[in-house]
Amino acid sequence: MSSAEGEPLVSAPALLSSGLLIQDSCHSAIRLTSFQDVRRGAISYDSSDQTALYIRMLARLGCGSTSASSDPERRVHRLLSFQRYLHSSRLLRGVPQQIPLHILDEDYTGQARCMLEKVGNWNFDIFLFDRLTNGNSLITLTFHLLNQYGLVELFQLDMVKLWRFLVMVQEDYHSDNPYHNAVHAADVTQAMYCYLREPMLAKSLTSKDILLGLLAAATHDLDHPGVNQPFLIKTDHYLATLYRNTSVLENHHWKSAVGLLRETGLFSHLPAEDRLNMERDLGSLILATDISRQNDYLSRFRLHLDQENLCMSTASHRHFVLQMALKCADICNPCRPWELSKQWSEKVTEEFFQQGDIEKKHKLEVSPLCDREMNTVGNIQIGFMTYVAEPLFAEWARFCDTRLSQTMLGHMGLNKASWGGLQQEPAPVSEEAEPSTACADKGDAATAPSDGSTATTAGGTSSKEIPQGSRES
Question: Which of 215, 218, 201, 207 is closest to 318 using CA atoms?
Fold first, then answer.
């Protein structure tokens, strides 16, 4: 396709599949067509906004230049999310050509460094760590873990490319999402690290397995819009069309991660076949967080345990265990100590309610768990634990019967009892305090599901049962 001016037009599906975007050095080469609301980055909630499927690609080579031949060089970039394009951080744009290693080491001083020394503790406070790292918890944590395992040296990863990749990953999480943001990704990565250290995994996983596990955890919700799959489907969002209403968000997270890997060239030094295998396996891990497939994975896991035929020396079995580990890490919030679990509940619930508010505003059917007037946090949280979290972590405890697995089950039991107690208590002080409490309860249930699993009791809302964004009509 081409415009009257002879400028190429490329469809969004083609753009996403190719992973390439031609733009000039002054960022004037991108023109958006009929985006009703670019506040939310790549996500547009206008169901009639079919033109959002197209992005004008101007092959201009200089600021203000209209001739493609005026400059011999073209800069080729991939546009992962409009959020990063519109709100690019100075940290990313200012990455120098070379980063001295001692500068990276300075990130691990003071209290943050002390916390990293205990990064394998289950009561690790990711909220505190995020504050201590000045909002860079995902970058700092992931870099530390990759380096601690010796993966940087083993896979000969270029330090500048790795740092740029991690910065871009953190940046492409939407910071205005109450729950699905970079702090959640950091929390899941920390939980994944705890699972990787479990004896059943530690003695069997290869370095490649560990690398994939950490990268999948860090990118598993990349560019999450803050709303769930049913919302995208019923508003005719282009991502739902692109992925044919199947694992829409998970496919987007995976493709977004692959786009960043290719843009930064993190694995460009590896043989082509190895790179493609890494991308494929990364996708397999991320797609496993789709809550709609929860029962399939759980049934398969239970069957393996019943037949005692999991062989960790087999690559496919190790990969399956990694999938289960990521699923657990994604919805482990109910298994954290109460102080941490409650905070996640409040955050995820707020995302639920924000989606419900948007649906009400545009006269759409309000999704389960998203109506702040019809739901209570406690009921949602208890339902999520009962029907989603407990069955999963009970099987994980069969597989890894360790102190950690028992600790997680113990925390979940106490947290469930706490929510039950709050449900029975009469409203304290005033009714105004009630909404925030309700948000917290619902948040936790919503929280875990939003990662990759949703409470089936809520009527089948998908794991990304979360809101945030606006649908302009």
Answer: 201
SS3 category, 289? coil
- Residues with Cβ within 8 Å of 177's Cβ and at least 6 positions away in sequence, in order, are 224, 226, 351, 466, 468
Chain centre to alpha carbon of residue 157:
23
**Contact criterion met (CB below 8 Å) for 221 and 180:** yes
DSSP-derived secondary structure for 81-118: -HHHHHT--HHHHT--S---HHHHHGGG-HHHHHHHTT
Q: Amino acid identity of 442?
A: K
**151 close to 210: Cβ distance less than 8 angstroms:** yes
SS3 22: strand
Predicted pLDDT at 424? 76
**What SS3 class is residue 464?**
coil
What is the biggest distance separating any 2 CA atoms in the chain, rounded to whole angstroms?
Answer: 74
Q: What is d(CA 190, CA 325) in angstroms, rounded to the nearest whole number?
A: 12
Report the pLDDT averaged over residues 135-158: 97
31 three-state secondary structure: strand
Whole-angstrom Cα distance, residue 167 to residue 159? Answer: 12
Contacts of 460 (CB under 8 A, 6+ apart): 368, 454
**What burial class does residue 424 get, using C-beta atoms within 10 Å of its C-beta: 0-12 exposed, 13-18 middle, 19+ buried?**
exposed
Give the CA distances from residue 20 to residues 11, 78, 307, 325, in Å, rounded to whole numbers and listed in that order: 12, 4, 47, 32
User: Which range is least confidently modeled, 41-45, 262-266, 295-299, 345-349?
Assistant: 41-45
Of residues 202, 249, 234, the one with CA closest to residue 451: 249
CB 381 within 8 A of CB 419: yes
Mean pLDDT, residues 20-40: 32
Contact status, residue 472 vs residue 36, Cβ threshold 8 Å: yes
Q: Is 271 helix (H, G, I), strand (E, B) or coil?
A: coil
Q: Which helix (H) or strand (E) holds 219?
A: helix 207-219
Answer whether 465's CB lies under 8 Å from 231's CB. no
pLDDT of residue 427: 55
User: At a CB cut-off of 8 Å and minimum separation 6, what does 257 contact?
Assistant: 169, 215, 219, 222, 282, 286
Question: Is the distance from CB of 415 to CB of 334 less than 8 angstroms?
Answer: yes
184 is catalytic: no
Check 174, 180, 224, 411 and give the catalytic one.
180
Q: pLDDT tens across 122-143, in order?
A: 999 999 999 999 999 999 999 9
Comparing 346 with 396, the larger pLDDT belongs to 396
